[in-house]
Write a structure and sequence with these properties.
369 residues, alpha/beta, 14 helices, 12 strands
Length: 369
């Protein structure tokens, strides 16, 4: 992590440690957003509720492939009619939450930690989680010459994307389960937890600055392409091998004022996930094409293929795992007990699922009463 970003983060974290907050980012790619883009509107289409545009945010990351594929294949715009879908890509959770709070975006794909963080900071007054998007896609990858078994992780330098982010919390919890001790804030202890931006991790691995990393895709597969080996798939630590990695959130005000527009976006998301499930190769290619359109770069096959296989694209937000992830952060000392009641509103998602003939999903008691 560049020195100026590291210093800024430490100051920010020190200022908020007394608050019930979770991670400051989901993936640690930075905090800038790219220029907005609009999708093409079909001739003769009508606006929903007379609304001109809906502003949608997402990350240029494979765990956000529902957004990537839905945009590339036009699923969202088809459902929105003449209400233009305007897209903005983000590199990390804080900037997306800030944009949501400021009204720059209405709906967004985002990880669990920044969703909890944003909800907690606003005392439950700014966002709702309205759907799921992805599960899995997180691995512990290591230098096979230095680490041959899980017990060999002790005493080594392992990267996570950012202090308190989703993967950082998961790794700290796993360390505690081994009976090892690490100071969560400094990362020092029986294992050296080295907070390293995902974009920097491959170079850090090549230089020997880290011995491995607990990271999301495609960073894990990028490290494997550099010679690392997968030591542990985080999915193996969860019941049914499922845990939330990406949710869909909405501004509460927008949800109240434009429920039909929100329903249209959710319908597009559900249809996109159905397309992904039935057309894996075409969907993978579409996601990669959208990544190239957004960033100018596509992923090579030796990174894209294994990364794609480790992610499940689902509509269920896996609400019980969100609570567990929050509990892990509390256990690590990075979070005071958050009040998550009301963070979910799955009414419109379940309406869409029912219409599509799919099973409805549960909010694990954390829904709007």
């Amino acid at each position: 992590m560049p020195a100026h970003r590291s210093a800024t983060f430490r100051r920010t974290f020190a200022a908020i440690t007394a608050l019930p907050l979770l991670a400051l980012a989901a993936c640690g790619y930075g905090s800038e957003s790219t220029e907005s883009k609009t999708d093409k509107v079909a001739a003769g289409a009508e606006k929903i509720d007379g609304l001109d545009t809906v502003n949608i945010g997402y990350f240029g990351n494979l765990t956000h492939a529902t957004a990537l594929v839905g945009i590339q294949k036009g699923f969202f715009q088809k459902e929105l009619g003449a209400t233009e879908a305007k897209y903005t890509t983000f590199n990390a959770g804080p900037s997306e939450i800030e944009a949501l709070n400021g009204g720059s975006i209405d709906i967004g794909w985002i990880g669990p930690s920044p969703a909890i963080n944003g909800y907690s900071k606003a005392d439950g007054a700014n966002l709702r989680i309205i759907g799921g998007s992805a599960s899995g896609g997180v691995k512990l990858v290591v230098n096979p010459d230095k680490i041959k078994s899980l017990k060999d992780v002790k005493g080594k330098k392992i990267a996570t994307p950012q202090l308190g982010n989703t993967q950082d919390v998961a790794f700290l919890n796993w360390i505690a389960d081994q009976g090892w001790k690490v100071d969560a804030n400094t990362g020092k202890g029986d294992v050296s937890v080295v907070r390293t931006e995902n974009s920097v991790a491959p170079d850090a691995y090549k230089s020997g600055a880290i011995d491995g990393a607990w990271v999301p895709e495609p960073t894990a597969s990028k490290l494997v392409a550099e010679g690392a080996k997968v030591l542990l798939d985080e999915a193996d630590l969860w019941p049914d091998k499922k845990f939330v990695i990406t949710n869909i959130i909405v501004r509460q005000e927008f949800l109240k004022e434009h429920p039909d527009v929100v329903e249209a976006v959710l319908r597009g998301s559900v249809k996109t996930n159905a397309f992904i499930g039935s057309n894996a190769d075409e969907a993978k290619a579409a996601a990669n094409a959208q990544l190239k359109a957004d960033s100018g770069k596509e992923l090579p096959a030796d990174v894209l293929d294994p990364a794609w296989k480790s992610i499940q694209f689902i509509n269920d937000p896996l609400a019980s795992t969100l609570q567990t992830e929050a509990d892990h952060a509390v256990k690590a000392g990075l979070l005071e007990n958050p009040k998550l009641d009301g963070i979910y509103d799955l009414t419109l998602l379940n309406k869409v699922l029912k219409a599509e003939g799919d099973d409805e999903v549960d909010d694990s008691g954390l829904g709007v009463k």
